[in-house]
C-alpha cells in the first residue's frame, strides 16, 4: 500500500512523524486529502502528559480533530460529494443509541468517538495525516469562498457558537469574555456576529487581547496590569478554566445575569469564591463541545465572519512537535497554531 505521513503521539513527550498505509474508503466512507489542521489543547495534553482529561493513551494515537481538506475518493454508496471538493469534518460519531432525555443534545452522549481521542480502546485516530477516511455523514462541504484553512477552524468556531447558544440570544446585550485564548477569541467573534451590544475581553496576555480586539472586542481588560473586570455585564463567558478567576467573574455578572462556563475546569478540588452565585441569583451553566453548530459555523464563515486573526503560527506537518511546543508555551504569544498537512506552508 502507498505510505503516508501522520502525526502520532506514542506517550508523554513522544510525538513522531510516522509512516502509515494510505487508507482506502469503505462503503459509505470518503477518503480526504488533508490540507490544514488546528492544534487544540487536547492535542497538547496528549503530547505533554499522555492523557487529556480522563482519556489516557494505551497505544499510539494520530492527533487532530480540527481539520479540513479535499475529497480524494468516494467509497461505494456515497452520493452528494465530488472528488476535489473542499470539506471539513464533524469529528463526533455516536456509539449506540442516544437516550431520549438527551434528544437534541448528542454532545452529552456518554459514548462518542471523537477524532484524535483516546477515550475508547482502540483509540479514534485523528486527522493530522496526509490522508484520512471518514464516514460520509461526518463530512461537511465548505461554502464557496471559504478556504480549507478557515474550514479547519469551523470546529472550534462551532464550540464558540454552542456556548453562545447556551446563553440564549445576545442581541442588544452586553458581553464579557474572560480568557482570550483561541476559544475565547472565537466566542468574541461569535458574540459580535450574533448582535451583542458590546463585547469586552479579559486576559493576562497582551498578545491574546490584541487577537480579541481583531476578532471584534470593543474593549479589553489586561488583568496582569491590575485592571478590573467591568461590572453588571448581562452575559459572561468564562473561557480561561481557572478556578481562581471565578470570584471576579461572578462579581462581574449582572444581578440575574448569565455565566456560561466554556473553559474546562480541573477535575480536582480547587478553592473558588462562589458567594455571588446565590446573592446575585446568577444562572451558571456549562457548555461542552457542540451538537450541529459546525453547520452554523460554516454559514457564518460564508457570510463573512473572518476567523483568520486567531491564527498566529503555521507549520508544516514535519514540524508538528515544534508546533505543539509553540502552542503549549505561554511565552510564544501563540493563539491558534496551524499545521499544513498537505502541500507547502502558505500565509
TrEMBL record:
Top-rank lineage group of the source organism: Bacteria
Uppermost EC category: oxidoreductase
Claim: Zinc is one of the keywords in the record: yes
Any single Pfam family the record assigns to this protein: ADH_N
Keyword Endoplasmic reticulum attributed: no
SUPFAM superfamilies cross-referenced by the UniProt entry: GroES-like (SSF50129), NAD(P)-binding Rossmann-fold domains (SSF51735)
Keywords: Metal-binding, Oxidoreductase, Zinc
Molecular function GO terms recorded: L-idonate 5-dehydrogenase [NAD(P)+] activity
Boundaries of every Enoyl reductase (ER) domain copy: 11-339
Cofactor requirements of the protein: Zn(2+)
EC number: 1.1.1.264
InterPro entries named in the record: ADH-like_C (IPR013149), ADH-like_N (IPR013154), ADH_Zn_CS (IPR002328), ER (IPR020843), GroES-like_sf (IPR011032), NAD(P)-bd_dom_sf (IPR036291)
Family: Belongs to the zinc-containing alcohol dehydrogenase family.
Name of this protein: L-idonate 5-dehydrogenase
Organism, as annotated: Streptomyces africanus
Taxonomic path: Bacteria, Bacillati, Actinomycetota, Actinomycetes, Kitasatosporales
Amino acid at each position: 500500500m502507498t505510505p503516508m505521513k501522520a502525526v502520532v503521539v506514542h506517550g508523554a513527550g513522544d510525538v513522531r512523524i510516522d509512516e502509515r498505509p494510505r487508507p482506502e474508503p469503505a462503503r459509505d466512507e470518503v477518503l480526504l486529502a488533508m490540507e490544514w489542521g488546528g492544534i487544540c489543547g487536547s492535542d497538547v495534553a496528549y503530547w505533554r502528559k499522555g492523557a487529556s482529561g480522563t482519556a489516557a493513551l494505551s497505544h499510539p494515537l494520530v492527533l487532530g480533530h480540527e481539520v479540513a481538506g479535499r475529497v480524494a475518493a468516494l467509497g461505494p454508496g456515497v452520493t452528494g460529494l465530488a472528488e476535489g471538493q473542499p470539506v471539513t469534518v464533524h469529528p463526533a460519531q455516536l456509539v449506540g443509541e442516544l437516550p431520549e432525555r438527551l434528544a437534541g443534545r448528542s454532545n452529552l452522549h456518554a459514548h462518542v468517538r471523537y477524532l484524535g481521542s483516546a477515550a475508547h480502546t482502540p483509540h479514534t485516530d485523528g486527522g493530522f495525516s496526509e490522508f484520512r477516511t471518514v464516514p460520509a455523514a461526518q463530512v461537511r462541504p465548505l461554502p464557496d469562498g471559504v478556504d480549507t484553512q478557515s474550514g479547519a477552524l469551523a470546529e472550534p468556531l462551532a464550540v464558540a457558537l454552542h456556548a453562545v447558544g447556551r446563553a440564549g440570544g445576545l442581541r442588544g446585550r452586553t458581553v464579557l469574555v474572560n480568557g482570550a485564548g483561541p476559544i475565547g477569541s472565537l466566542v468574541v467573534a461569535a458574540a459580535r456576529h450574533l448582535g451583542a451590544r458590546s463585547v469586552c475581553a479579559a486576559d493576562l496576555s497582551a498578545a491574546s487581547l490584541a487577537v480579541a480586539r481583531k476578532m471584534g472586542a470593543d474593549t479589553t481588560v489586561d488583568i496582569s496590569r491590575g485592571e478590573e473586570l467591568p461590572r453588571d455585564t448581562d452575559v459572561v463567558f468564562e473561557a480561561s478554566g481557572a478556578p481562581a478567576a471565578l470570584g471576579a467573574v461572578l462579581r462581574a455578572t449582572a444581578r440575574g445575569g448569565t455565566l456560561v462556563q466554556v473553559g474546562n475546569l480541573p477535575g480536582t478540588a480547587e478553592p473558588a469564591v462562589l458567594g455571588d452565585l446565590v446573592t446575585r441569583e446568577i444562572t451558571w451553566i456549562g457548555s461542552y463541545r457542540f451538537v450541529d453548530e459546525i453547520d452554523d459555523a460554516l454559514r457564518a464563515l460564508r457570510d463573512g465572519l473572518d476567523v483568520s486573526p486567531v491564527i498566529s503560527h503555521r507549520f508544516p506537518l514535519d514540524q508538528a512537535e515544534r508546533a505543539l511546543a509553540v502552542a503549549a508555551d505561554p511565552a510564544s504569544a501563540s493563539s491558534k497554531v496551524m499545521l499544513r498537512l498537505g502541500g507547502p506552508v502558505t500565509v
